[in-house]
Amino acid sequence: MAEAIIQADHISKIFPMPSGEDFYALKDISLTIPKGKLTIFRGRSGSGKTTLMNVLCALDAASSGTVLFDGIDLTGKNEDECSLIRRDRIGFVFQSVALIPMMTAYENVEYALRLGNYEGDYAARVMECLKMVGLANRADHLPEEMSGGEQQRVAIARAIAHRPKVIFADEPTAELDTNTGLQVVKIFKELVEKEGDTVVMTTHDVGLMEVGDLVYELEDGAITSVTHNDREADA
User: Fold this and answer.
1) Quick one: 126 exposed, middle or buried, by C-beta within 10 A (0-12, 13-18, 19+)?
2) How far apart are the first and last CA of the chain?
3) Predicted confidence band at 17 (pLDDT cuts at 50, 70, 90)?
4) 185: left (phi over 0), alpha (psi -120 to 50) or beta
5) Is 53 exposed, middle or buried (CB count within 10 Å of its CB: 0-12, 13-18, 19+)?
6) Which domain, by its residues, includes 204?
7) Distance of CA 224 to the CA centre of its chain
8) 14 in a domain, yes or no?
9) Domain count for the chain
10) Which of 66, 78, 136, 147 is found 20 to 30 A from 25 (Cα to Cα)?
11) What pLDDT, on the 0 to 100 scale, is given for residue 117?
């Protein structure tokens, strides 16, 4: 059984409604995210998967329950403390890519290193990351000069540049065609298998169920099933 990098116990997320009733976006969820694996949260829009990811990556706080992130209890952390955790320990890949349009691929990745106070050779690390995603030859290109799939691969290079503890990817294939989306997911798998990275990804695509080492299915803010595709998890 792989070591846990994140442990969530009985977390709920409640939003007050104008009617006076409470909306439970997450309902008493307990789960484990294994280190060095690809974990997928799958569910339809509104199932709670993005809310769950936001709580686990310190973008939002749970209304109740506890989250341990790499041994750090997120309960009661203020925004400054959470910001440092996100900066130093987490990499993000967004559905909308969110590259800086006036920066080249190289500069986008280098900027992430500067934000993360990376200690090392910036140029070597930038090119290493671009090579990992197959875009070393596109280092000098602006986002507008690249396809959607290439932009998302640059976003992945940016997310891994400062060597985060966990990479969170929220619907990274949603705006891509099927073949391009599979290429992006293949990169995540390679990062897990070759680099030992930990990736947590949300998706509504049932076709990706077999790609993750661990798959949590969500519906109406609750986990409805857990699938282990990683043989080590069953050992």
Assistant:
1) buried
2) 7
3) confident
4) alpha
5) buried
6) 40-61+75-234
7) 21
8) no
9) 1
10) 78
11) 80
